[in-house]
Write a structure and sequence with these properties.
Elements: E1 4-8, E2 37-38, E3 55-61, E4 67-73, E5 77-85, E6 91-97, E7 102-106, E8 115-121, E9 124-132, E10 138-146, E11 174-176, E12 182-185, E13 191-196, E14 200-207, E15 213-218, E16 224-229, E17 236-244, E18 247-255, E19 262-269, H1 272-282, E20 296-300, E21 304-311, E22 316-322, E23 326-334, E24 340-346, E25 351-356, E26 364-370, E27 373-381, E28 388-397
């Protein structure tokens, strides 16, 4: 298959990003599709339900940006989405539906730093975002196709059976009750059951970054439903927005970390508003400016503004208005402990900038060419367990006039 090359570059100081052609609907996938590329070359060739082979692109990602590929599904079924870096690159992938909800994500299930997600998808349009785990430059392949087609990656053979599509044994499972967390070390308990008495939309989480858990769910017939690794840091989460039928479901844990570390497993009813808030808190989507989510308005950005803010792993949002095209520089400077991350969106929800660790430091710097409009900037700590003061600087530059 011919490999198509796409490039995503983050702008340096007074340098502009070289971006691929935008997708036709920039609002797809919660705005992450603004610069996406069809994996099959065009929309008609990117339906992985009907293509005779997988669809694939080769992408170059620099300076903590990400490559986003688009594909469609016309028939519900099980599909495989993968990414593999060249030269040992460590990839991370997120798969989002058209509304922007993450339906699967993975770090290392492809083996040797490659990413691999096998999941059931309903008809619709999807985005797969590939980035480097540590933010270093990355060249890699992104592939999507039916589960019966040739895989890109070898898979991670050392995972427990549930994490590579094996069976889930309910005979030794610990029951889960909706809304009641259960905590056990993986080497003491790694299989759980969930009894649903009526059709229910469900969210499941597995939390302890020292354990780095992998969460897998099987239906009452023993068929694989969904899997997740590294949704929030090294913690795992699966959101099942479509109601599951009544019955007993099996929840299995794998892990990459400490087998003796306690892992908290929680099953609860799916909350669409919470899912959206999580996107805002991680900076993965921009909130509306209707007051439903906190956004600090800076008004018109005329020259230079400075703000100090105490930031944790949840993003703090700012908005500002631009009435004349030019250049905006945003800095996040840790005042003591901290490793800030910056993300910037336009008023249509399109990501226009992302940065972490600028100029050899843990501080962040964005330089974005802007047109008249309203822009939103999120700042958060890279480490969810860190809270510290960040000094924010917003500067506006106008083009020189002859």
């Amino acid at each position: 298959m011919t490999k198509r090359i796409s490039t995503a570059l983050t702008a340096g100081l007074f340098a502009l990003a070289a971006l691929p052609a935008a997708a036709q609907d920039a609002g797809l996938c919660g705005g992450t599709a603004a610069n996406a590329q069809w994996l099959g070359g065009d929309e008609a060739s990117s339906d992985i339900s009907t293509t005779s082979s997988y669809v694939e692109q080769m992408a170059l990602v620099l300076l903590r940006n990400e490559y986003v590929g688009l594909f469609t599904v016309s028939e519900a079924g099980e599909y495989r989405i993968e990414a593999e870096g060249r030269g040992g690159g460590d990839t991370v992938i997120d798969i989002r539906d058209a509304a922007g909800t993450i339906v699967a994500s993975d770090d290392d299930s492809g083996g040797a730093g490659a990413s691999r997600a096998e999941t059931v998808l309903q008809p619709g349009t999807y985005c797969v975002a590939m980035r480097s785990f540590d933010g270093t430059p990355l060249t890699g392949f992104v592939r999507a196709g039916r589960i019966d087609l040739e895989p890109l990656t070898d898979g991670f053979g050392a995972l427990p059976p549930a994490s590579d599509g094996g069976e889930c044994d309910l005979s030794s499972a610990t029951p889960l009750t909706l809304g009641q967390p259960v905590t056990n070390a993986w080497n003491q308990q790694n299989t759980y059951s969930l009894q649903l008495d009526a059709p229910t939309s469900v969210t499941l989480t597995a939390e302890n970054e020292d354990a780095d858990p992998i969460l897998t769910i099987f239906d009452p017939a023993g068929d694989w439903i969904a899997e997740n690794d590294d949704f929030d840091g090294l913690n795992s989460r699966v959101d099942l927005a479509d109601p599951l039928a009544a019955g007993t479901y099996c929840v299995s844990l794998g892990l990459y970390g400490d087998e003796s570390a306690p892992i908290t497993v929680t099953a609860k009813e799916y909350d669409a508003a919470e899912v959206q808030r999580n996107l805002y808190n991680r900076g993965d989507a921009s909130p509306p400016l209707d007051g439903s989510h906190p956004v600090f308005s800076l008004g018109e950005l005329e020259t230079r503004l400075r703000e100090d803010v105490n930031v944790s792993g949840d993003a703090v949002w700012y908005s500002f208005d631009i009435y004349e095209g030019g250049l905006v520089l945003v800095e996040a400077i840790a005042q003591g402990q901290g490793d800030p991350v910056l993300v910037m969106y336009d008023d249509l929800g399109r990501q226009v900038g992302y940065n972490d660790d600028s100029q050899g430091s843990l501080d962040s710097l964005l330089t974005v060419r802007v047109q008249p409009g309203t822009y939103l900037v999120a700042v958060r700590q890279l480490d969810d367990s860190t809270t510290g003061f960040i000094r924010m600087v917003f500067e506006r530059y106008v083009p020189a006039r002859p």
